[in-house]
Task: structure prediction
Amino acid sequence: MTAATHSTLFPQVPETADAVLDGLDPEQREVALALNGPVCVLAGAGTGKTRAITHRIAYGVRAGILQPASVLAVTFTNRAAGEMRGRLRQLGAGGVQARTFHSAALRQLQFFWPKAVGGELPRLLERKVQLVADAAARCRIRLDRNELRDVTGEIEWAKVTQTVPADYPAAVAKSVREAPRDPAEIGQIYAMYEQLKRDRSVIDFEDVLLLTVGILQDRHDIADQIRRQYQHFVVDEYQDVSPLQQRLLDLWLGDRDNLCVVGDASQTIYSFTGATPDHLLNFRTRHPGATVVKLVRDYRSTPQVVHLANGLLSQARGRAAEHRLELISQRDPGPEPVYTEYADEPAEAEGTARRIRDLIAAGVPAGEIAVLYRINAQSEVYEQALADAGVPYQLRGAERFFERQEVREAGIALRGAARAGANDSLLDDAEDLPAQVRAVLSTKGWTTRPPAGSGAVRDRWESLAALVRLAEDFARAKPEATLSDLVAELDERAAAQHAPTVQGVTLASLHAAKGLEWDAVFLVGLTEGMMPITYAKTDEQVEEERRLLYVGVTRARVHLTLSWALSRSPGGRANRRPSRFLKGLRPGSGSLGAVGSGGASGSVERGSGPRRRGLRGPARCRVCGATLTEAGAMKLMRCEDCPSDMDEGLYERLRDWRSEQARELGQPAYCVFTDKTLMAIAERVPATDGELASISGVGVRKLDRFGAEVLAICAGEEGGTGEDEV
Result:
């Protein structure tokens, strides 16, 4: 399951074609019934666009108007394609192809390469960074790690915009794109990169599209064969297509017009990869007779969140802004958005963690909460703060669920148990399907309580726990289901990349959050220089940053908090300003006039933590005196590479005590204290409550709960005082 799925886990397949249309609103129904000719669906955030297009395909298939094998639905991520396949399967249209542009092109390339070129298709290069590094070295150009990543991105952009190496400098100048190095040097590295690929007989992901386009242009017989196969095309997230993807789509279509595109120009946030909303905005010019449907009923967010989203876009400028959609919330009212100003980034992270802990205590599941930031480097301080607060979390962008080693091993074990049936002694005492799954997975490391600590062991347990929860949901939906039925369900989900949920607060960049949603969203770090990002120079680049924030706002269903910090580190100069995008939205920042149902709404709070009020200067390393800025270093009060004077024996005693506490509480060890906090305690050996409280990661709550025992251990009393056991 993705965070965006908020419906019954295992719905019944509609009995008839007409039943597929049940529950659609008038505009969604209009989309579903528009099965011929060009169709353009302008769909705002949360308006059910995936529902509309999957029901459209399913209705066409179930009504006998479309043949499943003749439909190709394309989107931009494996997750989105997997969700589309899962929904189509639930609607009784499982034979439809739903793929990314790259996977659809790769499949065609692999099939037709022997006929078009001869021999085997060159090996696909999974990661191009090392080859770019080799190319730079051949050109005698030194790149550090960040430059290497940026140059790799430039090569990808050049290829999807169909720019050859010799034309790269001119193309950069024309696009007003800020190159990370001298464009002539990047063009030279790009040319050498292409040469090395030829020498080593490899291709990259962009080549998959380029080569497929080349074959379809040169071999009309192959193009005709593909066009006979696919009669009907659906393109999701059409605002994100690149010129190269559009060229491929045109070749797939030929002179036909059975094309349905879905998009929202206000959610164009990937221009750095070559994406452009121009194809969406020009669709009616290219297809004058197109059916155009606007979806503006927002089923995701409360009126308060929608009001803020509309207000944010009301300030937008440029062509995309001229086509913005005014959303209308279909939900009951909820709380106003909260705006919070903090003194520094660690205070912002700790304040966010406290709010999240309060939401969880109030009944909001951890898996329905997200912290979203502009760049991935911002995650560390939030990881630390959540761990200190005892809140489980997961980083977005990790390995695909069904490709994890423990999930593959669990699948093999469940399949074996299903085949053995009553002959498997493991299942002797298992009365129902969930009990059978728990029994089988207990041999792979699953236990009723999560393990102490974090890292790989905890991740493995979370994966197996997700399978147990899925089995419980499956059994509730289908009481007569057997272990074999569950194995079949897992196989279908794996093929569709339709993963079950893993519990924990999501930490993600705004770009990675596209297409997802949560009950509660925290948008953090909203200062000038971060939102918009400092390298957004042109009006067009700044407007894309506004759209990125809009995407973040529209991820929230009910609770929305926007925050910023006035300085980076404790005691630093408070010279930061809130993002310009919040002007007229947050109270006290001016007025936009009436937007939707009113002007600026919400409340502004001054976030603070009891430990930080007395800080007067920047945090400095107690060894070398350098100013500290990283969360881990500030916790230790020394640079990470400065020598440690930690009492190793005390550290081990603290770890043993922490493990015992975690077992008694039934929580991961990091929920008691993180490793960094224990290291800081073992280095500073506090003797009083005040000294212990001054260590980052302790705080008032943990001081009250664990302080006496920790101080006793620091004083040499092996077992602690035992007076404050929980």
Remarks:
- The chain is about 45% helix and 10% strand.
- Residues 21 and 29 are 7 Å apart (CA to CA).
